[in-house]
Amino acid sequence: MEAAQEAPDRPPLDVNALSDEAFLSANGIPRLTVVESTGSTNADLLRGAAEDPSAYPDLTVLTAEYQSAARGRLDRRWEAPAGSAVSVSLVLRPVNADGRPLPTQSYSWLSLLAALALREALLETAGIPAELKWPNDVLVRGRKIAGILAQLGPMQGGAVPPVVLGTGLNVTLTETELPVPTATSVLLEQPTSVDRTGLLKSYLSRFATLYRSFCNADGDPAAGMAGGPSLHKRIEHVLTTLGKQVRAQLPGDHEIIGHATRLDDYGSLMVVDSGGHEHVVTAGDVVHLRPWTPPARTRATKAAMRKELLPGEQVIVVTRPQPRTLIFPALLFILVPALAAYGSAWIVKGGPSHLMPLIKESARQWTPWLIGACIGLAAWVLLGYCLPRVMTWHATKYTLTSQRLVARYGMLRRRDQQVYLATVRNVVIHQSLLQRILRSGNISLDTGYPNSTVVPDVPEVATFRNFILDAIDDLPPAGDLGVAEVPYDPASPWQVEPWTIETREGGRDER
After folding, report:
1. Percent of the chain with pLDDT over 90
2. Contact at 8 Å (CB) between 318 and 307?
3. Is this structure's pTM higher than 0.85?
4. How far apart are CA 273 and CA 265, in angstroms?
5. Which residues are paired to 372 by β-bridges?
6. Which of 183, 259, 488, 510 could lock onto 178 through a cystine, CB 3.0 to 4.6 A?
């Protein structure tokens, strides 16, 4: 990812293009509003739909240039520079072609449907291939570029409760403006276009098409859409979560570890544990879903930690520097004994007397001393040069936990260096040509201080960086602030338990 240090031009959304009657009617959008600034587009639509339902029909759209009180999962606040993101919310009142409301069990597919529509819009408008991460993230090269937030509105007079679906897409955020190191933006992915208006129109068009097909199929994800594959198959095809070992963290410090195999009929993730038992993980229950390191490696890494772990801290991986520094010592370890043996044999056979015939008699007297010098020189090279470098490499360990990165150097004189992941603002890889060939590199951790912390010669550096980014993403929030949830009425025949799905919507996540 290439950093963009200076803020690019950020023209406002083209209100005329978005308000074009041909565009709105073609996509069944009855009302599209663009505001300069608001607290939260989701909160505005939830409040409006509750106060005057008739003024907010199906596919009502609200988009803002700037949001000051936007929220994501766990009520995390975020804030993005004005004009740097696409922040849009829609009111959905799902009914089929006969006007019959869809079963509320099908609502769990709406976030995935929106993510699929956004993926198609990114490819069409910006030329960026993206993937989906369950339950609601859109990723580019493993980094989050967009997120979705779905909220269930209140029931009014026995009618179907609306769903407010918010989408946040990072568009022109620079490297320093990203909310977390695990994020990215359209600008940073070598796009063909960063036109927010074009991206928004493409997203709304593709969402409307998929949404209408989904509604006409009575919310059945297994039904074909527009003569093509079903929504279920389309999403599974681009879902990076499937086929991986994952750890699903659930409320109450519970977790499920296993193999993510498929999505069920309600969009829930099916995880098979080591005992072969299949678990259902729903979007409303999961706190975090991350790739999982096999338990055997985890036990070994825990044993390697000499200091006590902090409360709640877990070891993720332990590694040593890339052993390229041992290439020359290894060669000397092979060559020096061989040369010492050859030299000793040459001395015993009278090699020195052949070189200097005048000292033939005295050379015989010096033979033991010459052999001893030869062996001593070999021992000095092996013990004085090779062994210290091997010991230094072996004594250096990089330990990544769920809260810290600890680098330990030295054996007799140990030096520990640790960085708390909560202080990391950016993670950068630096590689020489040789390091690129060996897939190693130096990792620089920017914590906001003048000098970054550098971890040298990390093997499989891209994988190690991903471990760091995942651990940062797993950190608990420092404080939770957000918009109040819509009250949930369990006695209502229409209303189901509201769910909140993770999103940063292109902004700065305050942790």
Report:
1. 32
2. no
3. no
4. 20
5. none
6. 183
